[in-house]
Amino acid sequence: MKHRLLILALVAAFPISLWAAEPKVLFEDRFDGKLADGWSWLRENPKTWRFRDGALEIRVEPGAANNVKNALVREAPDRAKGKYAFEVTVTALAKATQQFEQAGLTLYHDGKPVFKLVKELIDGGLYIIPGKVAMDAKTVQLRLVVTADGFEAQFRPEGKGEFKTAAKGKLPPPGKDQISIQCYNGPPDAEHWFRFRDFRILKLAQ
Q: Is residue 4 domain-resident?
């Protein structure tokens, strides 16, 4: 009887809304040898992406946001219907040498890239962009949180500890959104690869 009363007291202290506040996984892809359904490539170069060691690896080639090669894209949830997060873990397999060499997540809106959350080489230093937060760890977990009107760019060095916020800001009104994994501004005369693993789309509590 005492145990039952204790359970009832705990339930009363923590309403159902709090128990249901855990993020809901809407999609995940561990890139363990194949791509899950729903992905498509922008400007695919089959020779410069591969599966290796239980992850997806993409060679960072010359190019920029509007002509990036091997951008892996999928439909994003409707931001008008809630708060969502996109997560991926990125590992650099070579030391970045090219100005603006980068890898991470890009949000497309009505077919155009409008926002990126990346690890980027700028003037010899490695940073999380946006926010230009110094981050020289070989591996970083990126987390882009989006709502109907804004974003929060987060990261965790080596995928450990609490997420840190690099920047917050506004986004265009909800429309046809896509999320992309990509890397660009690579050196033309060297093979630099990035490893991507554990991509997820989550629905968060408001």
A: no
The CATH number for 47's domain is: 2.60.120.200
What are the structure tokens assigned to 148, written together? 């109907």
Q: In whole angstroms, give the CA distance from residue 5 to residue 65.
A: 59
The strand pairing partners of 199, in sequence order, are: 29
Q: What dihedral angle (degrees, nearest 10) is formed by the CA atoms of 166, 169, 173, 179?
A: -10
* Per-residue pLDDT tens digits for 25-41: 999 999 999 999 999 99
Q: Is 53 inside any structural domain?
A: yes
* Residue 15 falls inside a structural domain: no
- Over 50: is that where the pLDDT of 66 sits? yes
Confirm whether 13 is domain-assigned: no
State percent of the chain over pLDDT 70.
Answer: 90
- Match 């994994």 to its residue by tokens: 181
Q: Count up the domains in the chain and report the number.
A: 1
pTM greater than 0.85 (yes/no): yes
Cβ burial 1-38 (10 Å sphere, 16+ → b, else e): eeeeeeeeeeeeeeeeeeeeeeeeeebebebeeeeeee
pLDDT score of 5: 43
Find the domain containing 97 and state its range: 23-204
